[in-house]
User: Fold these one by one.
Assistant:
Number 1:
Amino acid sequence: MLDCAIIGGGPAGLTAGLYTTRGGLDNVTMFEKGMPGGQITMSSEIENYPGATGHISGMDLMIPWPEQCQRFGLKHEMSEVTRVSRREDGVFSIQKSDGTADEAKSVIVCTGSAPKRAGFIGEDAFFGRGVSTCATCDGFFYKNKEVAVIGGGDTALEEALYLAKICTKVYLIHRRDTFRSAPNTIARVKAAENIELVVNAIPEEVFGDAKGVNGIRVKLQDGSLRQIDVPGVFVFVGNNVNNQVLIQADGSFLCDMTPWGEVKVDLSMKTSVPGLFAAGDMRAEAPKQVVCAAGDGAVAALQAIAFVDGHQ
């Protein structure tokens, strides 16, 4: 039986693996069907990870992490976990796509989330080359330049305000003329002198060249097209939480979730189920930054060690 099963091999999962093994748990396996590293490996440049100075890609940042973890005894199993369940005796069952299952005393789920795509032409082709889903990660690259933000919810408006402090102008593009955000946030956006609301507008196409994005075309309510020349387009239309492993046979979730499918945790990354922890982008109110995911993984690992030690 595993002391701890870690589901997911991004920054949260790898850090959890490092801390659990180095902290004394003897039998820890990280289940990650692909290569470890997570979404950050797709980022072309990282400037905001502490200690990472100079030009470094997300892949370069993550390459040393698995080796460091494995040096302390973390095992990596390239299997797809289909479900995590818990028996009446408190033992967790880690069910895999090949029909086999492992047992574990504790589980840390770090399966992350993926930003939804808006679906316009060029969105995938220019992703990472001018199209972004993280203002905190990429906003600085557009300092003193103009950018476009797509979306009408809390995240889109909050990120537009963040970008407005860095960029000379922000075009906030929304398919309706009302926003799904807190009244105070809407008021702040409307009061910002360098945010232009482009409402009743549907993104049609992002265009550019080999160097990256040059602009975006949107369809207005009267059917005409408007071209907005910007080097950066930020898309905030929601997230798909990778919570499938927590769905039980009867369709319910193993632990308490938010209405948006995120895992509810406390400051110790504990879920509503004893011995089950969640870390990284899948947990509620996650900042969706590598450094934060790593911190979550460390906290969850320390709690998992205490849990296993207390149930020997």
Number 2:
Amino acid sequence: MPIGNTAAHFLRLIGLEGIRWDCATLRNQMRALAACRFQFGFWGRTYNYQPIEQFYPWLIGDPPEHPLIAPRRMILSEAYYHDIMESAVPLDTRTLQALDGSCLALDVYCWLAHWLHRNGASPVVLPWKDLHEQFAQEGQGKNADEDFRRTFLLALQEVLTVYPQAKVKPITDGLLVMGSPPPIQKHNGD
């Protein structure tokens, strides 16, 4: 997968040209992603996963069009590529840009896009406790549950202004979620 000759070129390739990114931070995050390995287990099974096989990053001071420098690219593992192709939910880059100022709102948007698209049309109540565990870094201290709920609802309100087709409703016991379309409809061949 070509990643462009510079960090700015990469942002243009993925539709995030106007987003506020420090190119050094982007490079560091890409290197961290390229080096990560996942190991997790559930239902009695263990999975080991390395999403990226090879990464040829941009280097500080690289002349972007230097003919002797190998093309900048990221090579995904075959398993990761197939997982993406089979189960990805497309996200609207304009929404990502609109939520750029809030990490929690970005997390809630990505989570909702995936959850609402994958879990059918039957309404489900997700308890506040489960949501708190999902977004564990929010709401700590003496009134952790109430702090989390307040912070989460503010982020959810921000998300629903840019993802209005998301069918969710806060209720006393948690969040009522219903099947909703993804932010961007999949097209054949995507």
Number 3:
Amino acid sequence: MTKLKSAVFLDRDGTINEQMGYINHTCRFQLLPGAAQAIKKLNDAHIPVVVVSNQSGLARGYFPEELLVAVHEKMHTLLAEEGAKVDAIYYCPHHPEAKEERFRESCNCRKPKPGLILQASKELGLDPEKSFVVGDRWSDIKTAANCGATSILVRTGYGRGDEQYIGPQQTIQPDFKADDLTGAVDWILKQ
């Protein structure tokens, strides 16, 4: 039996790139300072990096699927320019109030449900319970809890506000808090 690997599951908006609401044009996709170098550290340590992202803007008709593909291509290009890469991208296109019927559903992949991580783990041979989930929203922290992963809240994107205003009322708390992805990755590599 093949031994399952640990991985780092990264939220996209607010964790890897600037949080700008819905990215409805590729020019709005900007990497956060240090994000590529942080991902490269994981690459150099041979730790799989998987992006898991809710993309309800697609469901709501704010942008077409082709744009989402173009944004991900831009992310791959910008990361590659700094010697970094993500191993896979999984996203949830669903929303209960979706404009397009094909996206209108209550699914298991919309964070904080664990579907994206469970699907990636099955397809890529990863062990969620030995893995880390890094994000800027409490939904990321709950996603980690829902699949047994270690959770890290970054204070980029919505993180600082979520930490101050959402977190105190939550029963589920992050295992670690970091100022940014670099701080999160440095902590992960010490574990």
